Amino acid sequence: MRMKKSSARILSVLFTLALAFSLCALPGCAKNGTSGGPELSAQLITTQAPPASPEPTPTISPVPVPQLKYIFLFIGDGMSTPQIQAASEALAAENRAPLSFVDFSVCGFAHTKSVTGETTDSAAAATAISSGVKTVNGYLGLDPNGNRLTSIAELLRDMGRKIGILTTVSLDHATPAGFYAHVVSRRTYTDIADDLFASGFDFFAGGGFHDTPDAAEHAAENGYTLVSSPSDAPADASEKLIVSSNLIFGDYGVLPAIDGGARTHFLRDVTTLAIDRLTSPQGFYMMVEGGRIDYFCHYNDAGSFVAELLDFDEAVAAAIAFYQAHPYETLILVTGDHETGNVSFTEGDRTALLRQTISCDECDDTLAADCIAAQTPFETALPLFAAAYGLDNLTAEETEYLKDAYTHTLKGDLPSNKVYEEYGVYEPITSACARLVAERAGLVFGSGSHSDLDVPVFALGVGQELFSGDYENTYLHDGVLQAIAQYPILDSQS
User: Which of 8, 16, 148, 224 is the most core-located residue (most Cβ within 10 A)?
Assistant: First the structure.
């Protein structure tokens, strides 16, 4: 029995050797002069069946080397976890798709206090984010001693990258100005506009200017084409462009998202336009601000701030679509500059936030103004306000609350300080409707001011791993530069 096993092993070895020699005799198999030779090859082929054809080796494409060309920084002004929670829970309650950025691969948290330890304003926050230096509230592009800082947008401009600054507020407002202006007061709008035109940035979009009625002339003098909507942009993408919406709304830029009309999808559309015009072998840096989230949190208009956040998210979604086409070249960051409103939560119907169809601004300017002019009776006016704010099935207590506010609106009998104390800056009936929306939704505004709450930082793409943990808001500057150094552009091909 032992002899039989040995014989079997010998035969197996001989067969293996014969097969190896036959394979080596095939064309292309000889290496280093070790071919089996033609005579042996012929012998083996006549005595054995040809070996089965091997399965084709799958072609494996090499993984591209990450190189950080395209950088998006989205800033929701006044947006932190409470604002995101409010919008997310409202969407979930209606079985709608979630916010596009909440499932990003990485999430960190940034501390927002300004250099003096105060709750930051948007100017100091924008300077910290753009320049990597904490500063005094109200300062733009200056350190606490008044020395000029270089923003990341200016630095990357000088390195040859295309730069875009987009917002839903005025172009000379604090957050966008933090990336190009260098002034001791965020209120010096003429000086800020001068810095904008002198920046040489490639693309601006927003809601016009505070104190620059001759903006078109200044733009042309500095090599910019100024248009009033994305659809009016010139075909030549090499032209420096300013999209200054002609829908000027006081001092706060484009019209509120909740009011629809021509404003609808503004931020998404200018983001898409900026992507088309700025994509280049040199790459780009783009700051996109949802500026009116803050505005409506200041005035405790919950339905309107949620609408602004959803509008902001549409722009983020446009960037995500670009990332999906350029996953090894793109970084997207989504954050806030600070929280506004000290928002907290109780039990409530979050979908109430999605039923409001008018901002407090629009309500004051149209519905309330018309009722005041006509001295419309409460019984006639109530259904109009209830429909605009989605206030169905009013209780007797809610009705009485609205009636009292409406009486003050018609009479105009409250002194200005009392109006502000009880109703904010709006007509009493307007503020009362907004308060009922928040109350029904279970949102509680602790104030009409900024808070020092940390803000989340969502990251997706090349260098995303650098933005986990918690850190000062200055790291939004430092981390991007680190990512650029870690993932440099390797060649000139887009």
Answer: 224
Distance of CA 350 to the CA centre of its chain: 23
3-state secondary structure of 82: helix
H/E element holding 205? strand 203-206
Query: How far apart (Å, rounded) are the C-alpha atoms in residues 342 and 80?
Result: 10
What secondary structure does DSSP assign to 172-194, as a single string?
TSHHHHTTT--BS-TT-HHHHHH
- In the chain, what are the domains? 70-346+448-486 (3.40.720.10), 352-441 (no CATH)
Alpha carbon distance 290, 287 (integer Å)? 10
**Rg, C-alpha atoms of the chain:** 32
Which secondary structure element, helix H or strand E, spans residue 40, and what is its range? helix 38-47
CA count, 13 A, side-chain hemisphere, 92: 9
**Residue predicted with more confidence, 414 or 256:** 256
Q: Which one is predicted more confidently, 421 or 400?
A: 400
C-beta of residue 198 within 8 angstroms of C-beta of residue 154? no
* Distance in angstroms (rounded) separating the CA atoms of residues 34 and 20: 12
Cα separation values, 88 from 96, 104, 305, 316, Å:
9, 14, 13, 15
Q: Which residues contact 11 (CB under 8 A, 6 or more apart)?
A: none
CA angle 341, 290, 131 (to 5 degrees): 95
Residue type at position 363: C
Given the structure tokens 């259904």, which residue do they identify? 383
- Residue 55: is its pLDDT beyond 90? no
Provide the pLDDT confidence category of residue 389 given band limits of 50, 70 and 90. Answer: very high
Mean of per-residue pLDDT scores for the chain: 87
What is the Cα–Cα distance from 172 to 178, expressed in whole angstroms?
9
SS3 155: helix
Q: Buried b vs exposed e over 37-50: b needs ≥16 C-beta within 10 Å?
A: eeeebebbeeeeee
